[in-house]
Amino acid sequence: MSTAASYLSAVKAADARARARGETPVATPALSFSSSVTTSSEDTILDDGEVVSSDALSYPTIPPTSEQVFSTVHTEFGHCANAEYRYTSQHPAGTPVKPHIEQDPPYYVLFTTYVSYIILILFGHVRDFTRKYFNPGEFKHLIPHDGYAPITSDFDSFYTRRLKARIDDCFSYPVTGVAGRTIVLNERKSKDYNRTFYSTGRKVRALNISSYNYLGFAQARGGCADAVEESIRRYGVSACGTRLEGGSLDLHAQAEALVARFIGQEDALICSMGFATNSTIIPALVGKGCLVVSDELNHASIRFGVRLSGANVRMFKHNDMNALEDLLKEAISQGQPKTHRPWKKILIIVEGLFSMEGTMTNLPVLLELKKKYKFYLFIDEAHSVGALGPHGRGVADYFGVDPRSIDILMGTFTKSFGAAGGYISGSKAVVDRIRVRSHSHAYAEAMTPPVLTQIIASMASIMGVAPALPTHGSTGTITKGRIVEQESPEPYPGRAPASILPSWMDLPPAMREGTEGRDRLRRLAFNSRYLSRALEKLGFIVYGHDDSPIVPLLIFNPGKMALFHRLMLQSNTPIVIVVVAYPATPLVTSRVRFCVSAAHTKADIDVVLKACDWIGDVLDLKHAPGERWSLEKITSNAVELVRMESQKHA
Description:
Blueprint: H1 2-20, E1 37-38, E2 45-47, E3 50-52, H2 66-69, H3 107-134, H4 154-162, E4 175-176, E5 182-189, E6 198-208, H5 223-235, H6 250-263, E7 267-271, H7 274-285, E8 291-295, H8 300-309, E9 312-316, H9 321-334, E10 346-351, H10 363-373, E11 376-380, H11 395-399, E12 408-412, E13 422-426, H12 428-437, H13 439-442, H14 449-463, E14 465-466, E15 476-479, E16 482-485, E17 496-497, H15 509-513, H16 515-538, E18 550-556, H17 558-569, E19 575-576, E20 579-580, E21 590-595, H18 602-619, H19 631-636, H20 638-643
Parallel strand pairs: 6-19, 8-9, 8-10, 10-11, 11-12, 14-17
Antiparallel strand pairs: 1-6, 2-3, 4-5, 5-6, 7-13, 12-13, 15-16, 18-21, 20-21
Helix pairs in contact: 5-14, 6-14, 7-8, 14-16, 16-18, 17-18
């Protein structure tokens, strides 16, 4: 704490000097890296308008005000007090949802992309042929030997060795510290063409636009971190402590009650793993004789769960409601295969926000079809809950619909809440059935107290906490692991009742009042729209919805994908990004997937745009039609760009 204390003291002193000179800074730009090499310390100390840092990192010349840094550290959560850099994520009431139209690049881009893959495959086979002849021992694991079959297929191994290995330096980069606004990379190099890597011993602090830290709760300091530390002192690290019936802690019951209130459903169930939430709960909902209608771009956890269930599955074109209705008409009229008996039930599964495309499900039309065809609706909100809507409650909040009109709402805590695990919410009857039939609830390990505390603290800070009402007895009791409230809860989307939170949890005033959570939501909405629209104005082909915190920038050519990643990391301000290619995407739609956070400042987005503008010209990536703006015009008209009506989905 001595380093943090000295940091705050230096900030106060620098702020006092700035105010004495008549300066009142309202925002700080992004980190300016005079040198990206770090040594041991990751904290910085402000000194009269600039930062003197033992790790050779420098802040901008204007320091943040002292009020801004008491709850956050600038490297973890950027300071920005400019109220103009805020926006509310909400679909305009009464307006139809415009379909998203994917733009195609020029034909020469598609042609050169296919040619690139052909060259890679041809040269790969030539190399395999020669090496199998001169060094057969290298391929021993791919052929039957000593009575054993090959453990992997030759095709899978070929793709890994001859295509993916060429860009392995773009993946699985070792990091240390908190994956907040910035992140520290442990630099590595390879001397054998990415077969093995060795550490250089250097540490590089880079701007992080690659993590699912949508609301910026990935912090080592702050109200949530303090609550987690207190939970460790009370409960320990593992799931041990005062237990209730059924083997659950009081924190489990409190977390489930809070999740149900946050989502707006009657009840909720939490799981210790997000992937297992889908893959083990879907088989508890459907089985043989049931039909699952799934979006073609649904997550692997959904696909795996449907396979385990034994239900019939049909897929429809991504987010195409006309194709979905045609499929429903055919499925209902024909019934089950061979027997043509009516389906026992029909379950439609979609994602609220698709993680690779950045597109949102057309929820208003889905609900209209639900009323017409009487199916059950399951929405995976792993990426949308906490990140969309004026209250951060997900796609139902974003489109202004009643969440109880959706049968099952699933989500995870690994993105917006900075924790781990997932949840299922719905009616009490459905959730009670899942408690009995779901393998993840009956057999999986329980969430640990620190993770539960992080969920409760972050979710409560988004909602705000309603003060406890005076009663003759306690404001709430726990019976058989469930919260029984004695006070009238606020209607959805209301604040969290104080009775749901642990009595020992002492959140800072800004978090209890909900002001910090609302500010994070509005900062995320501004940053998302600004980056998406600015990239379009620069001439890039960008997928996804304007309000999506996932912004895919299309690169197409696999060679350009690797070079884009390396150039971003080697720029004046190192930037960490995520590149995605086949098989996670179609073969010719390799992309960069920017993950925007409330922790980023407007100046951070400017840094990303500056790097993209330069690299886009070098690699010939600007293929989008329409009006183009200069980088200077974009950065100086950011507020206008964010608030103008979208032309993207028209």
